[in-house]
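Late entry, evening session. Most of the bench is empty. Finally got around to the prediction I had been postponing all week. Sequence below, unchanged from the version circulated by S.P.
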Amino acid sequence: MDLSTIDLSWAPPVLALLSVLGIVAGMIRWLVKHYLDEMKAEFKPNGGGSLKDQVNRLEKAHEDLDSKVDRIMEILITGRFKTPRTDQIEKIVAPEEDSK
């Protein structure tokens, strides 16, 4: 077998195409990794500015409002409430007095 008769005219275009594809794949990989790193940072608490911190604040505010609504419903349904300082139960509506 004589190696001088092998036609290698197809090799340079194929190598150029593979090189371009490799470069494009490397650029896409870098971009995806770069954007994922930025997104990953948003999901970690960092003291106030991340998405995770904002969700935690909203959950706390929701729990506070939920407990306030529960307290208001208890007052409206029973007509009584417990004062926070003395833990004494008081009625909202004064007892009815006959004015006759």
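Two things to note before I forget:
Residues 11-42 form the longest helix (32 residues).
DSSP finds two helices and two strands in the chain.
Will write this up properly tomorrow.
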